[in-house]
């Protein structure tokens, strides 16, 4: 393990981390790198089970807590619990998201609000809860999971998701600017096509294969590759990077 990726003694909070995708891969890698990790997700049983598996595999303190990222009171209570029982949160990874594809004219207002709340407002609420202590300590790293869809909007009719993920980019930059004088860094990771159970429900195998064939590197991105980018931004190898979002898409989107 690189010394700059050594997270020993640090406490990480990862949202939406009990599914078989980016969140769980990230929680596992942070624990493998020495961090103590709080795994959160909506399903209490699955969250505790995944946390237990990561703890057993890594030997780190890992606990699971159910959390709805749009419930501000629940977020505040969890952060207070972590501070009281473990200490200050050093790393926050905002991974919660959802998608309900529909063109603008066919998007129900409640669907729009639900996607914006989970994908964007949830990031805001968790940052709001952890930042005061981070700024007080002049230490902390936040990583927000965005999407290349924030730039490219390649999936037709995914209106609310595109808007929410573009909002995550702006929220990341704005917050980074505000908290940089207090010693806290805020960055993002924008994944491309990452197969997971949620995506598999949205796209049939033929569609997945077609999307993958358009990626210059010739394959989808593995969740572990997103976790690698998160680890870089969370650790000491990126101490001069803030307000940036790393594109991890296999070349599916290339910025100028």
TrEMBL record:
Gene3D superfamilies to which the protein is assigned, alphabetical: NAD(P)-binding Rossmann-like Domain
InterPro entries tied to this protein: NAD(P)-bd_dom_sf, SDR, SDR_fam
Name of the top EC class for this enzyme: oxidoreductase
E.C. numbers: 1.1.1.100
Keywords associated with the record: Oxidoreductase
GO molecular function, one term: 3-oxoacyl-[acyl-carrier-protein] reductase (NADPH) activity
Keyword Phosphoprotein recorded: no
Pfam families: adh_short_C2
Keyword Transcription regulation: no
Family label: Belongs to the short-chain dehydrogenases/reductases (SDR) family.
Protein name: 3-oxoacyl-[acyl-carrier-protein] reductase FabG
Organism per entry: Paraconexibacter sp. AEG42_29
């Amino acid at each position: 393990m690189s010394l700059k990726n050594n997270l020993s003694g640090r406490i990480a909070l990862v949202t939406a981390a009990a599914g078989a995708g980016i969140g769980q891969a990230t929680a596992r890698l942070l624990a493998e790198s020495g961090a103590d990790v709080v795994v959160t997700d909506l399903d209490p049983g699955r969250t505790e089970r995944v946390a237990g598996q990561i703890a057993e595999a890594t030997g780190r303190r890992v606990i699971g807590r159910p959390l709805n990222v749009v419930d501000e009171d629940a977020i505040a209570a969890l952060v207070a619990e972590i501070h009281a029982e473990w200490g200050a949160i050093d790393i926050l990874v905002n991974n919660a998201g959802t998608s309900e594809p529909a063109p603008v004219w066919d998007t129900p207002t409640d669907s729009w609000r639900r996607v914006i709340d989970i994908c964007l407002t949830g990031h805001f609420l968790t940052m709001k809860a952890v930042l005061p202590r981070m700024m007080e300590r002049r230490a902390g790293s936040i990583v927000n999971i965005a999407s290349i869809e924030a730039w490219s909007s390649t999936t037709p009719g995914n209106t609310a998701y595109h808007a929410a993920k573009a909002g995550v980019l702006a929220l990341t930059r704005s917050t980074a600017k505000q908290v940089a004088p207090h010693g806290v860094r805020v960055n993002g990771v924008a994944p491309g096509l990452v197969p997971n159970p949620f995506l598999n429900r949205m796209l049939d195998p033929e569609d997945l294969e077609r999307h993958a064939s358009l990626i210059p590197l010739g394959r989808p991105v593995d969740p572990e590759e997103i976790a690698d980018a998160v680890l870089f931004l969370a650790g000491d190898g990126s101490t001069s990077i803030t307000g940036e979002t790393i594109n991890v898409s296999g070349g599916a989107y290339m910025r100028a």
